[in-house]
Amino acid sequence: MSVFQNLPAPPVAPKKPVSDTRHGITRTDDYAWLRDENWQAMFRDPSILDPEIRAHLEAENAYQKAAMADTDALQKALFAEMKGRIKEDDSSVPMKDGPFAYGTSFVTGGEQPRYFREPREGGDRQVLLDGDKEAAGKAYFRLSGLDHSTDHSRGLWGYDDKGSEYFTLRVRDLTTGEDFADVIEATGGGGVFAPDGKSFFYTVLDENHRPSKIFHHILGTPQADDRLVYEEEDFGFFMGVGGSLLDDFIFIDIHDHETSEYRLIPTSDLTAEPKIVAPRETGIEYSLTEGGDVFYILTNADGAKDFKIVEAPVSAPERANWRDVVPHTPGSLILSHMAFARHLVWLARADGLPQIVIRDRATGEQHTIAFPEEAYSLGLQGAAEYDTDVIRFSYSSMTTPSQLYDYNMATRERTLLKTQDVPSGHNPDDYVTRRVFAPAHDGESVPVTLLYRKDTPLDGSAPCLLYGYGAYGITIPAGFNTNCLSLVDRGFVYAIAHIRGGKDKGFAWYETGKMADKPNTFKDFIAAADYLNQEKFTSYAKIVAEGGSAGGMLMGAIANMAPEKFAAIIAAVPFVDVLNTMLDDTLPLTPPEWPEWGNPIESEAFYKIIAGYSPYDNVAAKPYPVILALAGLTDPRVTYWEPAKWVAKLRAHTTGTAPILLKTNMDAGHAGASGRFQRLEEIAFEYAFALKAVGVEG
Hints:
Layout: E1 18-22, E2 25-29, H1 39-44, H2 51-67, H3 72-84, E3 95-97, E4 100-105, E5 114-119, E6 126-130, H4 131-135, E7 142-148, E8 154-160, E9 167-173, E10 179-193, E11 199-205, E12 211-218, E13 227-231, E14 238-243, E15 249-255, E16 260-266, E17 275-276, E18 286-290, E19 294-299, E20 308-313, E21 323-326, E22 332-339, E23 343-350, E24 353-360, E25 366-369, E26 377-382, E27 390-396, E28 403-408, E29 414-419, E30 431-439, E31 445-453, E32 464-468, H5 485-488, E33 493-497, H6 507-511, H7 519-534, E34 543-548, H8 550-561, E35 568-572, H9 578-582, H10 590-597, H11 604-613, E36 626-632, H12 641-653, E37 660-665, H13 676-693
Parallel strand pairs: 32-33, 32-34, 34-35, 35-36, 36-37
Antiparallel strand pairs: 1-2, 3-4, 4-5, 5-6, 7-8, 8-9, 9-10, 10-11, 11-12, 12-13, 14-15, 15-16, 16-17, 18-19, 19-20, 20-21, 22-23, 23-24, 24-25, 26-27, 27-28, 28-29, 30-31, 31-33
Helix pairs in contact: 3-13, 7-8
């Protein structure tokens, strides 16, 4: 590719063939050696990485650095722009809870948040936890949050200082600011206090990074003495622990991607055996929130594909006692729900757009909070208190900075609390946001959200960054993103393809983009590219595709299926070695992922389906576009060796001259750099690559 010239020779990974036979089918993997045999221990201590693997990753980093050397000034300019759109000393609007209001803030130049509280009606702020102070001297640092006890005397906080997502928990005296001696290791990052603040419940991750056990810790005792509350025997399930607004119950939430089970511990008896609400039943999902003497349960039971809300007595919450409160409405997907003393609230998605619905619990009267823009995003924060008429939500669109509202559910009055400040300036009238629909291969229509400047020519000459994800039912919101303005202001059309695998058009949109129907996700993305090319929003020679994690699998698949339709591809922590990963049940996420992709160990049919699209397995002799793959050494979700192997194989097979680059963050995991400005540096690098790939000078 002409824009990448005079590069040094790329690293060549040696081939060390390893064969594997399943269902009578033998495959050979030339690059299996890039997986460190001691990966579990390496996630906790990256210094023990196999020296040969480290040398290869560092050689790859040197190569991509040489390829991107001429963008150093552009990267700095992009970083400065993006940083200039962030209010450095920003603060959240505190959320009222009892005698205090709690929030987070940043200081000018600070990378990490500060957690604070102030008197309920305003007054002097007290910093409870200073993230910058805790992160001092660490190459990587990420806070998991701060949860205060019911009496507001203590805080439970967690941190990960390796990027491996093994979090250490500490307890802080919120009056003195001193931490207790208690140190809880290898947790999932969260926990919940018992109402008396003298003990808490937490989840421990096993050596394969799975949340397998819930423990009860009493302050002042060693972790080794903690009582095992519940152990999940099926390693195909995720597990978490939380509490209710009324502090009546500890909730144990057990689920995979299609099945749920809740167990309850009454806080009146912390030693009680956890009680099952409804035993797990494959394909039945449910989640519950407390409503006084009843539980409100969001579920897809009884064929409610787009979910309904039922209620059940707290004293007898089993499924036989579930009674419909909000019936199933096909096409209106209920995403989440909350209950308060006088109101039931839920977030739904209809016609591809979110809405918040409020119901008066006494009268049954309900109303909807909605907005007129063509595409927008809503966030439902709710409230920290049960006995309240006021909830909080956020609103934004691709052109409208985020707005935070308090909403009185009884009077229907909105109070604007805060509008996102863009210090460098932002005029929404300079931009256009649109929702268009691309015809899919099977007659479906794929929503695509667009953002571009009013003066951008729509004659096929504009470059485009086309983003996609399409997995786990996750909907990519059409919300305000200050970072992408750096591309849009340089003439790009920024596009989000709302492809199957997400729930953008209801639960069926998710169902028809998973398991045996997974290829629909890839075809939808290509259909979006076809539409943007046909309608002259851009042209194939100007499209940069981007996706991360499961969206990185999408990038790998479209690179194999239609490399000629993309100028460049950015694959962040890409899940590209799908078949090998789904065949290895020792990896952290493999068993819980089988309901999403299928189990190729047990099923020959799913072995063949996954083998048919797995990006790594389908690399072939063809001219691939320029590709940038991003990895994190301690990533437990998409292990570093997936992109490393993929890049090695791509480079060995491509018949073109476009460079294929791998950048591995040797100090981070799945989420990349942890600090807010460190993360901007990574985005600036990706955008500089996109600009260079389509020949746009900074």
